[in-house]
């Protein structure tokens, strides 16, 4: 996600005057640091959701104080507890069940506030656009959990590789494609159901970035220009 910050995400934040941000999946904090710098400049606040953050959370908290809240929970437990946000960055558990239900939680909050936030989603293209991956398989209900294995993924090949491949140490769904499989599929299924008028933009580089934003002509032109000028 951090590879999109300077050219796409930050310009949209500035244009939309974003003040309250949720980041799902912080990992090493590479993107978190960039968001927090923006928060300091704009008097904004960041909620980080990650059950196992890979950075010194105490140090971050001492530096950024009340601009930062860290929730060491899975997203489907933490997200409903956050009362307000203008933007959500989703880069956590890359599977249909988690992403679809993250979007449903956001939608339910929007029904209360009357405003759907801008949502950025990473890994909307290969390898996880059409294939589930499970960081914590036991948190996914069995009915939604695809057969999986800790084997690598090869482009153009549905079945997992016997040797080598991308992300061979992760819990990857055995096959690519089909119903309720992958991040992009979750987004498409959500968009078919929601009554909110939402536009969906796709940037296909760097494993893909999806952008969901309430539909209006001014925002449409702005985001199209930002994406076009980004060169991504």
From TrEMBL:
Superkingdom: Bacteria
Task: Provide ranges: composition bias, Polar residues.
Answer: 156-174
Pfam families attached to this UniProt entry: Methyltransf_24
Q: What keywords are assigned to this protein?
A: Methyltransferase, Transferase
Region labeled Disordered — which residues? 155-174
InterPro entries, A to Z:
SAM-dependent_MTases_sf
What is a single molecular function from GO for this protein? methyltransferase activity
GO biological-process terms attached to the record? methylation
The name of this protein is: Class I SAM-dependent methyltransferase
What organism does this protein naturally occur in?
Paenactinomyces guangxiensis
Upper lineage is:
Bacteria, Bacillati, Bacillota, Bacilli, Bacillales
């Amino acid at each position: 996600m951090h590879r999109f910050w300077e050219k796409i995400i930050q310009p949209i934040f500035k244009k939309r005057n974003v003040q309250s941000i949720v980041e799902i999946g912080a990992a090493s904090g590479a993107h978190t640091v960039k968001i927090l710098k923006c928060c300091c400049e704009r008097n904004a606040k960041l909620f980080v959701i990650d059950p196992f953050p890979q950075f010194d959370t105490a140090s971050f908290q001492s530096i950024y104080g009340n601009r930062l809240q860290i929730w060491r929970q899975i997203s489907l437990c933490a997200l409903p507890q956050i009362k307000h946000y203008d933007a959500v960055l989703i880069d956590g558990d890359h599977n249909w069940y988690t992403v679809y239900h993250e979007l449903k939680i956001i939608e339910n909050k929007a029904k209360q506030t009357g405003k759907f936030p801008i949502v950025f989603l990473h890994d909307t293209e290969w390898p996880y656009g059409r294939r589930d991956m499970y960081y914590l398989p036991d948190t996914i209900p069995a009915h939604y959990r695809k057969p999986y294995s800790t084997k690598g993924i090869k482009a153009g090949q549905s079945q997992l590789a016997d040797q080598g491949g991308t992300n061979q140490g992760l819990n990857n769904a055995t096959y690519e494609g089909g119903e309720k499989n992958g991040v992009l599929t979750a987004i498409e299924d959500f968009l078919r159901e929601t009554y909110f008028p939402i536009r969906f933009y796709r940037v296909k580089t760097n494993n893909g970035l999806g952008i969901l934003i309430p539909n209006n002509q001014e925002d449409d032109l702005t985001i199209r220009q930002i994406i076009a000028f980004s060169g991504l």
